[in-house]
Write the structure tokens for this entry.
Amino acid sequence: MDRKWRLWGTLGVLAALAVGGLLGFIVLPVVQGRAVGIDAFTAICRAVGILPGSPARPTPPSEATPQPVTQVAWTTATFEELYHAERANGARLAGELCVSCHTLEGNTTDPSIPRNIGQSVFALYKQLHDFRSGSRVNETMSPLVKDLDDKQIADLAAYYGRLFRGAIDPDQSGLYVGTDIENIVSNGDVARGLPPCSACHATRTGGPIETPTLTGQYAQYLEAQLKAFASGTRHNDIYHRMRSVAAKLTPDEIRLLAIRYSGQ
Amino acid sequence: MPRHKNLVLAHLWLAFGVFAVATVFGVWQMWVRSPLHAPYENPQNYFLSVTAHGVSMAYVLTTFFVMGFGYFVAETALRQALPWAEGAWIGFWVAAAGAVMAALTILSGGASVLYTFYPPLTASPFFYIGLVMVVVGSWIWCAIMIAAMARWKRANPGQAVPLAMFATVANAIMWLWTTAGVAVELLFQVIPAAIGWTDTVDVGMSRTLFSWTLHAIVYFWLLPAYIAFYTMAPEAAGGRLYSDTMGRLTFVLFLLYSLPVGLHHLFMDPEHSTGFKFVQTTLTALVTVPTLLTVFTITASFEVAGRLNGGTGVFGWLRRLPWHRPMVLATGLAFVMLWFGGGGGLINMSYGMNAMIHNTSWITAHFHLIFGGTVVIMYFAIAYQIWPQLTGRAVDAGELAQQRWQLWLWAIGMMVMTLPWHWLGLEGQWRRVAHFNYDDPLIAWWGSWVDLSLLGGVILLISAWLFIVNLARLHARQPAGQAQAQPMHYAISLHPVVRLPAALNGFALWNALVLVLMAAAYGWPIGQFIAQPSPAAIVHHVDRPG
């Protein structure tokens, strides 16, 4: 009796496995592949996972030419560079290039110039990189950064970004400027297809990674940037995210949102 | 009567205490997602709460309940003392310390990653280390269960291991297999990333390793309910177990087919090929076999009881069952919920149909109905059954009525909560979000259904706390003149077990077959990440400022 159980138990389990394997690896891929013009061998290799793609769909032909709005790619190498950036070198560069407008503390008093102190390292890196590549244009910034290499940009970003708990502090809450603006911040506006600002510009864990911290930034600067996005003169936002949002806001909302985030 | 009553009580009280607190979190979450304004409402609090609720219910309630109940079965079914009671206490304290560590990390906001281990979202290392300690405690339990059965077999050569113990050891062995996946993921991927030793993580591999654990863990939670179906419900109904062999086959099939099926949680993931997803769908379909065997066997056992009690006709025996007994009532209610929950599960496991309900509220509703409903109601029934054994105090008629009230409230609350939730999932309501914008005309109509779900949640909360009160009352002094609690009896099978094949009295053959199935189902899906390393993802720490 013991032997019979062992034998039939094993055969039963293996038979069920074989049926699943036969259907999943051979019958279905061959039949589905034939319907979309994939030969049997390729279909089976795809079903097993040795070749990429699905056995039920032809490989999609892509003729689109990519036109990136930014040259920054968040690869492991980029992160390694930022994690191991030399702040001392960043401070030296800041003393040479940035000090006259942004000050060494990153806390300028001119409200048309953004504060850098405590800004996200990733946001600073992307903006500097975009000024260098031409993705973002500014008559002062563009020529200043054009000769910097990736490492120098990372060092500068790390220097200003890690002036920790500076003027820009994601943990601070915004200034209350009315229910309508708070509603846009936390709920957006479905009628206009506006996503909530807080979907990306959250406290602490905002995202995508290059999302800048807004709390504590100058209102005048924020307003100018929103208007630039709205008109399309600034266009280094991936997937048109900010351009499409800003274009749907009224001038009044832009002004109030800038005040709300600046806290002033 | 068990000798180590305090050991069992410590496990079960910790499990139920955490459960009671976690129900409060759960109701608050339903409230936040409803159109009604909830206190402390913001996304940070919501995700903290979901993490606390999920970890408490899925890891703490279950693990401590399974361990405590296992120790009880080992002593009462085998009628021998535990092989290593000191070890059991060590396991308890290690797991309890781990649970406290994880809880403190969650409450401090350092672990709002929900209760799934899906990098690159990464919590504080203390969260993961705490949960590893819970698992280590449960491994000690597994060793003691296996040792207890081995010792009994040596002392009783050729005898059939009592079904309750056979099933408990099946669960222990399954748990050892189950935890291997998540243990590798945590030790080699997640914890190094959480500590900061690595900046990147192979997300495809970690999801695959988690899927190894993700489905079988559900059966680890479920098996105590099945143990109660087979070994307690027929006895409580006043009959016999229809077939002991059917029970053994059921637990063996769970051991075999709960493991090589986890890819059905990754149907929409791009890192696996269609072939392996299909094979695992086929194997998942086989999990329905032990469930159907059980429905048949337990219904037959109840029919035997009903007819012994004078029931006649096709359905007349149903009316003659002792529904006033909590174990019988809970089994009936569990079967009703299993009908709906199991039907939903068939949709989730189908490679094609899954796409309709993927990542919607349907999934959350499904696991609440099948786990929170079918399984947890049997945890209640088991507790009601064994508490008199642990406190030595019999239950009086008033207390019995209160227990029935609690079970009814639980079943009704669970149906009221999960049926609208399923419906909204079918309509596309997404899960894992803190907030719905009910101003949106497209989804405004969801509001009243979510309110209805919330009402179900409130009923569940009342039932949960009534359960705690019911158990606490059984610790009071025995009223004068009341009979003492009866010793524990497990159901006797209709046909006495004369001789069993070795295959149904041990696990050697089945372990070998699990190995074969796991190699076939997971060999290449895991091996591919070593053969063709995929692009790594950047670790995202929720416990560090951005």
Observations:
- Chain B has one domain: 5-541.
- The longest helix of chain B spans residues 43-78.
- The first strand of chain B starts at residue 121 and ends at 122.
